[in-house]
Each structure stands twice: as C-alpha cells, then as structure tokens.
C-alpha cells in the first residue's frame, strides 16, 4: 500500500470521526430517564446498561455506542468542546 493511499484513507476516517463527533454534540437523548440530555452528557452507568441490554436501533444506538466507548477509554475529554457549563443534573441522577 502506498503512502498516498494510506494518507487518503486516513483523511476519510478523520473526516468521518469529526462528523460523528459533531453529531454527538448536537444530539439529545429522545426518551427515558435522561430525555433531553445531550448524548455526551449521559452517565456512563446509563450507557453501560444499554451495553448489556441492547442499544437502540439505528443512528442513535450507533452514536450512543461511540459515546460509551469514549467514556470507557477515558477519551470523553473530546466532548469538552461542547460544554459551556457543567452538565446539568436532574433529580433522576440522585
């Protein structure tokens, strides 16, 4: 594989990752206990529940899996760019 081909594939992958990160930053949880909360601010324990019981179908489930994996890997600092203030917590967090 030539270096040019590798760099081209790398650029495609980086573009896809940037698009997904932006989408995560704009998407709110549409249902459940944390309805209305941005995906990146969902508690790791909540995402962990989906890991064992099944992710929602489609794009939402895919994005939630990315958020979960980033939190597990300690890479959720990438979400700081979206946070203008500390994450809001509801009574459901208690």
Walk me through this protein's architecture.
This protein is an all-alpha fold and 94 residues long. It is built from 3 helices and no strands. Helix 2 crosses helix 3.
Give a short synopsis of this structure:
The chain has 94 residues and is mainly alpha-helical. Helix content is 53%, strand content 0%. The chain has three helices and no strands.
How would the blueprint of this fold be written?
Elements: H1 3-26, H2 44-53, H3 58-73
Helix pairs in contact: 2-3
Helix fraction?
A: 40-55%
**Broad structural category:** mainly alpha
Coarse shape:
globular
Q: Compute the number of structural domains.
A: 1
Gyration radius (Cα, Å) is 15 Å
Number of helices: 3
Outline the low-pLDDT stretches: none
The end-to-end distance, rounded to whole angstroms, is: 53 Å
Beta content:
under 5%
List keywords for this structure.
single chain, 94 residues, globular, 0% strand, mainly alpha
